[in-house]
Design a protein that fits this description.
By secondary structure, the protein is an all-beta fold. The chain has one helix spanning 302-311, and strands at 3-4, 19-25, 30-33, 67-72, 80-81, 85-94, 103-115, 120-122, 125-126, 135-137, 142-150, 155-170, 182-199, 202-214, 227-238, 244-253, 257-261, 279-280, 285-294, 316-326, 331-335, 339-340. It has one helix and 22 strands.
């Protein structure tokens, strides 16, 4: 995890716990870079094969390509971005020696909650506990859970994990007749806090304005005025540390409006299905546009739209939804609030 804050022992015990907690972030692997040796033509230098600079030379690998066929895990916590799913594994380990018969650990339960800048939410863990009493852990055994949370806010987040278990002291030393009888027992609990920062991956800037009305619609009070039309432009800036691929950028219009995408997914006569999804490098900006028109023969929401335009010339158009993938395949999704046109 990014940063572990001081643990708080809820049961006030100063002696070491029999159960420890490990929290690791789940990340997709990435391709490993390989450093190639330059080719030389001088007869005075010893002959070195380019593959000598590879960590794992292979007959099937291309020694002139910067990417090797190996996968590597991130060496550090990495960055957490708004719109992506934060995933980690929680592992409660029984730290008792394998030959320790004097203590028994059972009823092990793990719970977690996420503290965001605005609220605190309990988190669902998978797999779910089949036994409500918790799990029994033999020495050196572990209980693992996976937690997933969709990051929706920018700023500091705290993952709070609580482990509760029962520790039973047994009679005898493992060879006496009293073995297997409980002498005493207690419930122990400890909590650990892990803090990380959620950053903005995509910065969205929008601009919308009204177009001249066109196409007479008999559903309007004054049929001579024609249907409402607007143009929405949006700039999407990659604020992250790696390139992303935009999968979809769509506008969910508010009735009685409908939207037409004017972007790469617009089909053409030569390319069926539109152009390939664009790749946006760090600090690059992708501009998208949508034509928004009033639907024909639709009266739902028409009175509110007409009143808003007559009052101040502003109209609520819809919400922009953006889906992307990072370089290692992590999905991200972002939805804006209700977008309005500029005041006339």
């Amino acid at each position: 995890m990014s940063h572990q804050r001081a643990p708080s022992n809820l049961d006030g015990q100063k002696e070491p716990h029999s159960v420890s907690l490990k929290v690791l972030r789940l990340s997709r692997p990435s391709m490993t870079l390989q450093n190639l040796l330059p080719r030389h033509t001088s007869d005075e230098l010893p002959v070195l094969l380019p593959s000598a600079g590879l960590s794992y030379p292979s007959a099937d690998a291309d020694d002139q390509f910067i990417l090797s066929p190996l996968l590597t895990l991130p060496p550090a916590f990495g960055s957490a971005y708004v719109g992506e799913t934060f995933s980690c594994t929680l592992c409660a380990n029984n730290e008792l020696p394998q030959n320790d018969q004097r203590r028994v650990v059972n009823s092990v339960r793990i719970s977690a909650e996420m503290q965001t800048p605005s609220q605190t939410l309990p988190l669902d863990l998978t797999p779910e506990d089949g036994d409500l009493k918790g799990a029994k852990l033999e020495p050196t055994q572990s209980l693992q859970k996976i937690v997933r949370y969709d990051l929706k806010e920018e700023g500091s987040h705290v993952l709070a994990v609580t482990v509760t278990y029962s520790e039973t002291a047994m009679l005898g030393d493992g060879a006496s007749p009293a073995q297997g009888q409980a002498a005493s027992g207690r419930v122990r609990t400890f909590r650990k806090l892990y803090q990380f920062l959620a950053q903005q991956c995509l910065a969205v800037r929008t601009k919308a304005g009204a177009l001249p009305r066109g196409g007479v619609d008999t559903t309007l009070p004054d049929a001579k005025e024609g249907r409402f039309r607007f143009m929405l432009e949006a700039q999407l800036e990659n604020m992250g540390e790696e390139a992303i691929t935009l999968e979809t950028v769509s506008l969910q219009p508010k009735p009685p409006l409908r939207s037409t995408s004017l972007n790469w997914d617009l089909p053409t006569s030569s390319e069926k299905g539109g152009s390939p999804s664009p790749v946006v490098n760090p600090r690059d900006i992708m501009q998208v546009a949508f034509l928004i028109e009033q639907e024909r023969d639709t009266t739902e929401g028409l009175d509110g739209l007409s009143n808003d335009m007559a009052r101040d010339g502003r109209a609520t158009l819809g919400q922009l939804s953006i889906a992307w993938r990072s370089g290692v395949g992590n999905r991200g999704f972002l939805s804006t609030g209700w977008l309005t046109s500029r005041r006339r």
